[in-house]
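Hello,

Our lab assistant flagged a job as stuck in the queue for most of the afternoon. It eventually completed. Since we weren't sure the result was trustworthy after the delay, we are filing this so someone can double-check. Below is the sequence as submitted and the structure that was eventually returned. Let us know if re-running is recommended.
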Amino acid sequence: MSRRPARASDAQPTGDAAAEPVGSPGRILTVPNLISFVRLLGVPLFLYLLLVAEQEVTAVVVLAVGSLSDWVDGFVARRLGQVSRLGELLDPVADRLYILATLVALTVRDVVPWQFTVALLARDVLMTANLAVLRRYGYRPPPVHYLGKTATFVLLAAFPVLLLAAAVPGAAAVAGAVGWGLALWGLGLYWLAGGLYLIQTARLVRARFARAEVG
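-- returned structure --
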């Protein structure tokens, strides 16, 4: 997992000349990668518990553990010196799957309104187009910005609280207020981070055109 701010100079062109990530990029069987794989397995388990078995409290526990492990795998990778290219790819994939699966499930169960879901998914659609532009000009995806990681962490913290508010009536007042406070804060940070990625891409594209004109 990357834990440093992304700058325009950080995005590297693809190909043999591209810089390799710090650590052991070729390693697969590492402790943080195992944690990420377990996180991925938690996605279908959460969906089954919530939508099929209707075990809402158990689903809250699975979602909370999956959300917490987003921080754990990065911490373990740094402490054990097991940063890998696979881990850097798995971590955002697991984050996106958790967010997408949770949004769909909570929207189906009427825990969150569809407008909130559309607002989050629209940002991801925009970022997908942004990555396509980067690849068009020969750049890898930029390192994850700390603001984006903060937004993801806040959203993943909000979802279990919102589900808890729906599953336990006695906790609805407090958990609902806390959950929606986190959710709206996370949504704002999510879009702000997206804006920074767009600015970074615009700078890279302009720099590429400037070099082409000089050449």
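-- support follow-up --
The delay was a queue issue, not a problem with the job. The result is valid. Residues 2 and 144 are 6 Å apart (CA to CA). The longest helix spans residues 172-214.
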